[in-house]
Structure formats: C-alpha cells, structure tokens
Amino acid sequence: MTALDLCSYLGLGATGAVTINLLLGMLMSLRYSPTRHWPRRHINLFNLHQWTAYAAVALTLTHPLVLLFIRAPHFRVIDIVFPIHSPLQPKINLAGAAALYLLLLVFVSSLLRLRIGRPVWRNLHYLVFPSALLLFLHSILTDPNLTNGHPDLLDGGKVFIEICTLLSCVAVAVRWRLRGQGFRPRRAPVPEESAVVAGNTLA
C-alpha cells in the first residue's frame, strides 16, 4: 500500500464515519428508540454517536497529513492548514479544510457542552450540516490519484461517497418531514379528553 492509497482509504473512512454519525444524530433528535422500533434491542445510540464522532475526527485529521509524505505533487504544511495555494485543486482542498475546521468546532463544543450551555452547543451543533456538505463536495470532486484534477466519478470509491451523500440527503429530508413529532408514540387521550371529544362529535 502506498501513501497515496492510505490517504484515499482514510478519506473514504472519514466520509463513512461522518455519514453514520450524521444518521445517528438525526435518529436521536427524532427520539428514535431501537427498543420500540427495529431491531427491537437495547442499543445505546448516544455511545455509538460519540464513538463515530471520534472516528470521524481522527480519520479526517489524518487524511490530509499523509499528503506530507507524498513526493509528487509536493504538499507543504501550509498547503494542509490553508490549502488556497496547494499544488492541485486548491479550491476543492479548501472545501475539505473548511469541513475539517467546522467538524472540529462541533466536536470541541460537544466536549464542552456543560460549560458553554445547551443553547450555544445546540446552535454550534447545526454546523455539522455545512461541514458534511463541504466534506461530500471535497470527497466527490477531488482527484484521488493527484494527477490532472479530473476524478472518475464512476470509480468504486466515488460511488461509495455518492451513496453516502444520497443517504445523508434523504435522511435530512426525512428529519425535516418528521420535525416536531419524530418517532415518539402518540399520547393516548385520558378518559376526560375522550368524553369531551365524544360530546363535541355528538353535538
């Protein structure tokens, strides 16, 4: 395995981890219960969400660092931190760097949520959506071979990223559709409420 292969695999892993983390986060926000619903087993979604966040941050951080060990094209530290003048696809790399910085901001704010307060943490947590968008954009359009900047969108790795992007878009649409109610069971009316409803119907 070459350093370039490792860089690509780390990027794919980061995309997969961010996708799973995003899906778990939206399930939690909708009050999804794996005990009441599929798979009808006790699964700690919060722990899974937390560990996928650790994995996403670790993979997203190490992915660009591998570029420093590739001889051609030569990437400097500044090309990793602020890739506006990187040797290949600077704009696409800048989108990836912005995704990383937003992801780090969300991650750090989650670690400090008890200190900064829930309202601030909640507002910062919404940054995960533009972060994921920038990450998917970078992952799809970047050239994994670092040759001419024209990726093969039908490559196996690109298809995986495109599927992750589609799943995330569908999940966001479902999250928006189920806002307010979510997966919480409907509250059964108390006898007094049932009598009032029946009286109003008869009247």
Protein architecture, described:
This protein is mostly helical. The protein has one domain. It has helices at 3-29, 45-65, 77-81, 90-111, 113-116, 118-125, 128-141, 156-177, 191-202. Helix 1 runs parallel beside helix 8. The longest helix is centred in the first third of the chain and has 27 residues, at 3-29. The chain is globular. Mean pLDDT is 90; it is low at 193-203.
Count the helices. How many? 9
The geometry reads as globular
Instruction: List the uncertain runs.
Output: 193-203
Q: Report strand %.
A: under 5%
Q: Which secondary-structure class do the elements indicate?
A: mainly alpha
Q: Give the count of structural domains.
A: 1
Distance linking N and C termini? 78 Å
Give the overall average pLDDT. Answer: 90
Largest sheet: none
Structural Rg: 22 Å
**How helical, in percent, are the residues?**
55-70%
